[in-house]
Amino acid sequence: MWVPKTEEKTYFCHKCSGKLEFEVKMMRTDVCPHCAADMHVCKNCEYWDPGEHNQCREKIAEYVADRERTNYCSYFTFKSGERTKLDKAAVRQKLDALFKK
Fold it and tell me: Burial, 55: exposed, middle or buried (Cβ in 10 Å; 0-12, 13-18, 19+)?
């Protein structure tokens, strides 16, 4: 019998980028074991998007004032995949090259 391979997901803290491993379902009050930041926050959610209205792609979610504090959003889904940090010098260099400064 063929059994599909389960997709391994990797999770990282929005604040310290520390790798997170969950042995059980994450609870609303859980904190990062590396930096003690709240985990059930907008910035860890797959729907968080600073360019969207209310910074959320889920159109019917309630407004959340503090995106880095635990909230009660029922649409929260932990974003998988590594967060990339912007290298400001590299970005500036690319912009300068683009505009030939």
Answer: middle
Confidence at residue 86, expressed as pLDDT on a 0 to 100 scale: 62
Domain boundaries, the chain: 10-101
The pTM score is: 0.71
d(CA 35, CA 17): 9
The token duo for 64 is 């959340």
Mean pLDDT, the chain cut into blocks of 10 residues (101 residues total) = 61 91 86 95 94 91 92 92 69 83 58
Cβ(13)–Cβ(80) below 8 Å: no
Q: Cα dihedral sign for 61, 67, 72, 77?
A: positive
